[in-house]
Amino acid sequence: MNNETPIPVKQSLxxxxxxxxxxxxxxxxxTNKLSIGPKYLLAVMELSLLVGLRLTAPATHxxxxxxxxxxxxxxxxxxxxxxxxxxxxxxxxxxxxxxxxGGKQLLVSAVSIYFTNIILFGLLYWQLxxxxxxxxxxxxxxxxxxxxxxxxPVHITHEPxxxxxxxxxxxxxxTNATAFxxxxxxxxxxxxxxxxxxxxxxxxxxxxxxxxxxxxxxxx
Length: 220
Known about the structure:
With 220 residues, the protein is mainly α.
């Protein structure tokens, strides 16, 4: 019997960094009236997240890497709260009158918040699940998501040592934001279910309330 601890696979970060850059661009599309503080300050926070993520995906699962992972999770959560705050401000503007905000501006804001929501929660899932990219494969922490590849026969996947990458977590985030529920990948822990529930509520609020009202203003 082999008692050796599996070593997590070192994964490329270029697609993670590309996603954060996309989130920065989406943040800059928001007007300052719909952001907590100057939008450029939030963009700087996301830029800090971009730099921080470079340090949060080491090949080993030691104490230092876990601390860096916690910093990355904290930064991602902070930017996620800022994005949800923007949604709250948009809803407040719709309920109390749009003021100087036109239908086009609200529609752009809705699209920005929706896609930023997908990117940020994909980052959260990627960093959280199974100890993050530096811990997955060690089986030390509990797994938060059950991917179909983990129980599919090897002769079908042809990947005996398969591990989820950032793309897999973005896919989970996309399906959760569009179906408002899990699809092929299931949340196993309370924290994963809580995050997916929050993301679904944010996505549903953005699509049903903000986008619909903005279209009505445009055609009204």
